[in-house]
Design a protein that fits this description.
- The chain is mainly α.
- It has one domain.
- It is elongated.
Length: 142
């Protein structure tokens, strides 16, 4: 694989990536802000009440999870109807922005036979999806 000199195609890919990054971060911030305001207003009941949260805050995580009934991993997704879990939607959106940006530019890189950058983007996508899936947790022994 040889490196190509910078060209207009590179500028186009960078502009698309930047536009998606800008839109995604603004959307993620907005969702996070709305989730926090809904939670603080009490408009939607939390899964773990403020009193229970305060009483259990200092517990070891295993005991906190056991007493609160809070799920681990992607279990939070089914709790998005609770005020304290609305914040997770914004966090998940912000965390997924890089993957979405790479998914958007990957077909362009492939179409223009920019194999090195396409390979890097595909590898980034694979690593980020593996990390999000929890697959990498199985290698930690915990």
């Amino acid at each position: 694989m040889e490196l190509k000199p910078h060209n207009e195609q590179d500028d186009r890919v960078q502009a698309i990536y930047a536009r998606w990054l800008d839109i995604g971060t603004k959307a993620g911030f907005a969702v996070s802000l709305i989730g926090m305001l809904v939670y603080l207003s009490g408009a939607v009941a939390p899964f773990v009440s403020m009193a229970d949260l305060a009483a259990r805050w200092g517990l070891p995580v295993g005991r906190f999870l056991q007493l609160s009934g809070v799920p681990t991993g992607w279990g939070w997704f089914r709790l998005l109807g609770y005020g304290d879990y609305l914040n997770f939607a914004g966090i998940a959106l912000i965390a997924s922005i890089t993957t979405l940006c790479y998914l958007r530019v990957l077909p362009i890189l492939i179409a223009h036979r920019d194999w090195l950058y396409a390979l890097i983007a595909a590898a980034q996508i694979a690593v980020l999806l593996a990390a999000a899936s929890g697959l990498l947790n199985s290698f930690g022994g915990g």
